[in-house]
Automatic annotation (TrEMBL):
<dbReference type="GO" id="GO:0012505">
    <property type="term" value="C:endomembrane system"/>
</dbReference>
<feature type="transmembrane region" description="Helical">
    <location>
        <begin position="96"/>
        <end position="117"/>
    </location>
</feature>
<keyword id="KW-0472">Membrane</keyword>
<keyword id="KW-0812">Transmembrane</keyword>
<feature type="transmembrane region" description="Helical">
    <location>
        <begin position="142"/>
        <end position="164"/>
    </location>
</feature>
<dbReference type="InterPro" id="IPR052222">
    <property type="entry name" value="DESIGUAL"/>
</dbReference>
<feature type="signal peptide">
    <location>
        <begin position="1"/>
        <end position="26"/>
    </location>
</feature>
<dbReference type="InterPro" id="IPR009606">
    <property type="entry name" value="DEAL/Modifying_wall_lignin1/2"/>
</dbReference>
<comment type="similarity">
    <text>Belongs to the DESIGUAL family.</text>
</comment>
<keyword id="KW-0732">Signal</keyword>
<dbReference type="Pfam" id="PF06749">
    <property type="entry name" value="DUF1218"/>
</dbReference>
<protein>
    <submittedName>
        <fullName>Uncharacterized protein LOC111480965</fullName>
    </submittedName>
</protein>
<keyword id="KW-1133">Transmembrane helix</keyword>
<feature type="transmembrane region" description="Helical">
    <location>
        <begin position="54"/>
        <end position="76"/>
    </location>
</feature>
Length: 189
């Protein structure tokens, strides 16, 4: 099966939607806090069983896959014809959306990974010597925000892919025009 722009678009979009869904479900399943169990000079936090950490990591993984596919799709030589990167970045709209896609990917990665790692640390370090501890969990809202940015990121990769297609067409039209005019000059000489 030949890789086409449509196939790559579907891959980027599907992976982005899956990342979004995992992030939203992780946010909704996250407990508000744990239950403190006092002991001699310490408090042990007991947290309910929840899939937040696993869903958070899955959301991060699918975001990485979506962004990698998006990046790869921009520079892939479709139909065996490659385009120099400089020719793509001559198009200012492509450059802008490429940078926005990179920025939203980084921000989404941060907003998904930070609360996921924090939640994992809270679960693994459940013994506290501060008797006033309230058994905290990761900050509420960050996973949901990261999920929406993950979806935005995949959409920006899709826009960049469409603009790369336009830049590709312009590049090949320019090559064809220059080739035709060079052949015309050689015939007249």
């Amino acid at each position: 099966m030949a890789v086409s722009v449509k196939v790559m678009s579907l891959i980027v979009a599907c992976l982005g939607v899956i990342s979004f869904l995992f992030g939203v479900v992780a946010e909704n399943k996250k407990p508000a806090s744990g239950t403190p169990i006092p002991g001699k000079g310490l408090v042990t936090c007991q947290y309910p069983s929840d899939p937040t950490v696993v869903l958070g990591y899955l959301s991060v993984a699918f975001l990485l896959a979506s962004s990698s596919a998006g990046y790869f799709s921009l520079f892939y030589p479709y139909h065996g014809k490659s385009v120099p990167r400089g020719a793509l970045f001559k198009n200012s709209s492509f450059s802008i959306f490429f940078n926005i896609a990179l920025f939203t990917t980084g921000l989404a990665m941060t907003l998904l990974a930070w609360p996921t790692l924090t939640e994992q640390l809270h679960l693994s370090r459940s013994v506290h010597y501060d008797l006033e501890t309230a058994c905290p969990t990761a900050k509420t809202g960050l996973l949901g925000g990261g999920a929406f940015l993950s979806l935005d990121s995949s959409l920006f990769w899709l826009v960049a892919l469409m603009l790369a297609g336009n830049a590709r067409e312009d590049y090949f039209d320019e090559i064809e025009e220059n080739g035709t005019s060079a052949q015309t000059l050689q015939r007249s000489a």
